[in-house]
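Mods, move this if it's the wrong board.
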Amino acid sequence: MTLPALSACIIAGILPLLWLPALPDIRLVWWVLALGCLFAYSQKPVVRYCGFTLLFFVWGILAAQQTLWPTQHLSGGNRHVEVILTETDNMTRHQGKILRLDGVPLYPAPGITFYGEYLPRQTCSGQRWAMTIRARPVHGQLNEGGFDSQRYALASHQPLSGRIIHARILDARCSWRAGYLQSLTERLVPYAWQPVILALGMGERSALNSDVKNAMRQTGTAHLMAISGLHIALASMLVWLIVRAVQFFLPVRWIDWRLPLLLSVGGAIGYAWLTGLQPPALRTAVALSVWAALRLSGRLWSPWQVWLCCVAAILFTDPLAVLSDSLWLSAFAVASLLFWYQWLPIPGTDLRGWVRGCINLVYLQAGMTLLLLPIQLSIFHGISLTSLVANLAAIPLVTFVAVPFILLGMVLHLTGPSIMETVCWYVADNTLEILFSFLRWLPPGWLNVDMRWQWLAWVPWCTLMAWRLNLWRTMPAVCLACLVILAFPFWRSERSGEWSVHMLDVGHGLALVIERDGKAILYDTGSAWPGGDSGQQLIIPWLRWHALEPEGVILSHEHLDHRGGLNSLLNNWPGMWVRSPLGWAGHHPCFRGEKWQWQGLNFSVHWPLQGSTAQGNNRSCVVRVDDGQNSILLTGDIEAQGEMAMLSHYWEHLASTLVQVPHHGSNTSSTLPFIQRIGGNAALASASRYNAWRLPSAKVTTRYRQQGYRWFDTAHQGQTTIAFSAQGWEIHSLRDQLLPRWYHQWFGVPSDNR
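Not the wrong board. Structure tokens:
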């Protein structure tokens, strides 16, 4: 079997980890392993390839199960562990690896993140601590169009989070990298662009402020501002050039072409270690090692064979890297580059020197902008309209000026302060000043793109292939059919009478979207926290991904977990109306007796009473939405007192098909008479898995089920959608039905809510 064929088997075997709804049982894994071994010894090439693919499939499954082992055996109680810190903010957030459990070594050491706890002394990476911890499995909010934090955590081998109950230092020594980073940080204090220099040189992005991040996002230059394959490859190239320069002065008998190659790979690995072995840096080091091994083999390998072997080596080394968006972005970028230059090579010209270089740079950037559209929309849900111009300036400045001087400055810093080191930092700082002045001068260029364009983004690839293979002449019908299929989301029309309610997964809070005919109304807007809110982080990306334009917001009451995202929504859509019982300026009233229609749906308010002195939860605006056949009752955080008050006077209007469970499933709400009076078929609760109040209450869920309700909550189901039509209604949950993946499951003890 050839090496490229083996690489293809590795990729084909591990790739299913992206789509498996659940990991196979270990007994099935053993059967697949036996079948793979049997097929691998076959004399028929196709059967043999299938056998190796099955073997690598088992390899990926075992790696995934190994990563999930800590979620099953370390959660649900206090554990005595030995932890080495790998990252810390020197305050309340620490990342580490669990080296021992009850004195027994763990290999590989599982990663864990601690939140909200100060350690008893100054911390730094490299320290070893004896701790009593309470670990809990990773569990992320899951919404369409949002960041998949659970997948990211598993791809980063961080399956646990937790809190520290007791900690005792075992070894207070910091790692060499931590000491070097501290020294470098202090040395760079006088320079305005210190955070960006540390991000480019050491991969430390935590200090980047929001203005810098926004400028990079708007201009599509964020890929240059962190340790990426480009920086590792550049460091490797600089080592190669230095070794070659030294060889110039050596006798011929001492010169070997292999030495610069091997030392450059060693330099790449060393630099990857210095930057904290971040996944992109580590993958680049693996890819460079594979490329060097292929060069040393003495054979001529095509670019596509090298690409295939590098991707396969990365996945074999770390099968869970298949879940990493950054891996596929890098691999897709290299594939696009190869495809662009092989299928559409730049026309030959007589121009030479810097003019030719500028033409090549523009040509390269144009190709990458077009061919990266599919994966850019898939991951970032948008594109930068100014990225072409921005990168034409940013790539040369960063690659050929800023990064080389930063790397040289980092080397010189090892020998102590010097004039040369100061010159390096001065040049790097002023280069970044010029770059960001230019980026800020450019108009805001970020364009959010909705899901309808997801498949149409493949048109540049299809067009290029159709043109080079002359398919547009020989098979015009096929080309037209492909275009129509890719554009299907644009001409597909919704069935008449359909409308939907989406309960978004916003953790401990509430946000529902009522959708019909491309328009939307929100009921509550989630929570807010220092530096962000649910509106900006979750609701707005969801609305834009679905191409929905919100026309109004119904605010149930004043608590922050229900109104936290309101300002962000109003900043993006200032024309929205707001209804609430709060009496705030600009708010329309939301009191008993209010009725209105929107997109053919009837809205009626059943609580609170006009002039009521109730405050907080019992002032929640209770709204019933119906289409004449089906209905949903939205209750906010109303508690037992408010429920009984509604029942005593207005009970005949509360019957509904579905109900939003009051107060996140708290036992202070959802009284039995209230549940019985609604007489619904399904109950939907918005709750976070790890909330301090252990909501939803087990008594409440039992109460609803005993009355014949189907129970759904965002902690278990993630985003939950109810689709109404003339034929009835149906519920779709993202975690269980729409996007069932093994890495989206509820890990750990099923009843564990801590």
